[in-house]
Amino acid sequence: MLNKAVRKRNGCWAKIFDNKRNSQNLPVFKPQTRFSRLTKSALAYYLRADIESQQEASQISLLTPGVHASLCHEMTFFEQIGREFHMRGKKAFTLVELLVVIAIIGVLIALLLPAVQQAREAARRMQCSNNLKQIGLALHNYFSTYREALPSAGIPGSGYPNDHSPHARLLPYMEQANLQNLIDWNINMGHPGSGSLPPELWPVAAYPIDTYLCPSMAGDPVTEFTMNDGNTIDVAGASYAMIHGNGLDGQSHAGREANGLCWVESKLRLRDVTDGTTNQIAFAETTVGAGAEATPPTTTVVEDVDLRVWRASGSASNALAWLTSGSGSVTGWNGGKSTIWLRGSSPNGLVLALPLPPNSKIPDFQSKSGKAGASRSYHPGGVNVLLLDGSCRFIPDTIDYNTWHGLLSRANGEVLGEF
Predict the structure, then answer these.
(1) 130, 137 in Cβ contact below 8 A?
(2) Is 270 within 8 Å of 377 (Cβ atoms)?
(3) 190 falls in which pLDDT band (50, 70, 90)?
(4) Fewest 10 Å CB contacts: which of 63, 137, 325, 341?
(5) Which is nearest to 287 in space by CA: 229, 342, 358, 233?
(6) Which three-class secondary structure string do you get for 56-99?
(7) CA 72, 76, 80 angle in degrees (round to 5)?
């Protein structure tokens, strides 16, 4: 049995013999080398003893002196080979080694994770910029179709403007003609304070458009809205608002003319933008609110509220007054900001006056259909904007107030600094 085991391992042993004997300047064993009967017996006895226990291996010393002397050199050699052979079979880690490897992996993850997150945010910001560029292309195609006229925030209606947003008017130029075909422009949209949106427009109002949504936004763009007739419908918001003005003229209701680009029944053309299309913001980032039916925060401490999804209830003029005086207060909150892309001048519509600097620590304000605040985003450090010439820029939060206000007015003659 043992001789059979020796023959079975002969090829493996021969390789080890080659390495050992080369290092000792001894004749190299070949795989076909025949061991003497005495050597085989000693090797078999050693292997058996090594497998069973070290105590039995010590029985080799009980051999007769003559045999022991003849095996002395061979057994020392076999013992070295046996140790090497068994050491080669060791594959497990010790507990300390395993803990060290885990600690190294943890450190690497901690170092790489912020870099991965920054790379992802950079990609999202680039996609946001691409969305604005698509809107810019649609806007210029609209100019070409309507002889350089800018889209308005609606037309006068019965009791309230029929305020189809500029977003709705740009749909055919953004490969959304099928969606626009669902809009019956002859149906009055109703007063947001005393009326209700006609059922024919519910499917359109609830449809989110990917190009109108920043990929960095948090939360669902579709929220609930309870109308005056008691019906609760889904409405979809948007991340980009057209500019009503800078708010310095006291105008915050998009149903009235302001110093920007868009309001109800506006009849502006490119020639009316005397400050130049490269110095005029057409669309700026905004954030979709938590929803008109969301439970508002109970605190009046501004620092404890996420201003990207909540705006303060109160006169829109409070925003500019707070900016001017450096102080203000809040009595309540609502989450309806920018939650319906279909409407322009309504309280939750997408035509905004922006007297506050980007991502301001001062909250946006809304009372009835008047609304004023800041351009806000989920990008760290600033917001993306679309200039009227079709280019897209990233505006930092630290932009000079005068420069920011100048970018939002079309014909004030300001000499703008770097932005």
Answers:
(1) no
(2) no
(3) confident
(4) 325
(5) 358
(6) HHHHHHHCCHHHHHHHHHHHHHHHHHHHHHHHHCCCCCCHHHHH
(7) 170
361 in Cβ contact with 251 (< 8 Å): no
What phi, psi does 365 have (nearest 5°)? -125, 150
CB-based burial label for 90 (10 Å; 0-12, 13-18, 19+): exposed
95 band by pLDDT with thresholds 50, 70 and 90:
confident
Cα 61-63-69 angle, rounded to 5 deg? 80
d(CA 130, CA 250): 33
134-160 pLDDT, tens digit per residue, is 999 999 999 999 999 999 999 988 778
Distance of CA 71 to the CA centre of its chain: 75
Q: Which amino acid is at 231?
A: N
Per-residue model confidence (pLDDT) at position 88? 55
Which residues, including other chains, have CB under 8 Å from residue 102's CB and lie 6 or more apart?
A: none
- Three-point CA angle 282, 285, 288, nearest 5°: 130
Q: Which of 111, 113, 35 is nearest to 77 (CA)?
A: 35
CB of 265 closer than 8 Å to CB of 155: yes
Tell me the pTM. Answer: 0.76
In the three-class reduction of DSSP (H, G, I as helix; E, B as strand; rest coil), residue 356 is classed as strand
pLDDT, one tens digit per residue, over 247-266 is 999 999 999 999 999 999 99
Residues 6 or more apart in contact with residue 233 via CB below 8 angstroms: 197, 202, 205, 206, 224, 225, 227
Q: Considering Cα of 350, then 121, then 301, then 397, what sign does the dihedral take?
A: negative
Q: Beta-carbon neighbour count of residue 52 at 10 Å?
A: 10
Q: Quickly state the pLDDT bin for 6 (edges 50, 70, 90).
A: very low
Q: CA 323 to CA 402: how far, in whole Å?
A: 13
What's the pLDDT at 81?
A: 55
Q: Please give the Cα distance from 291 to 336 (Å, whole number).
A: 5
Contact (CB, 8 A) for 168 and 183? yes
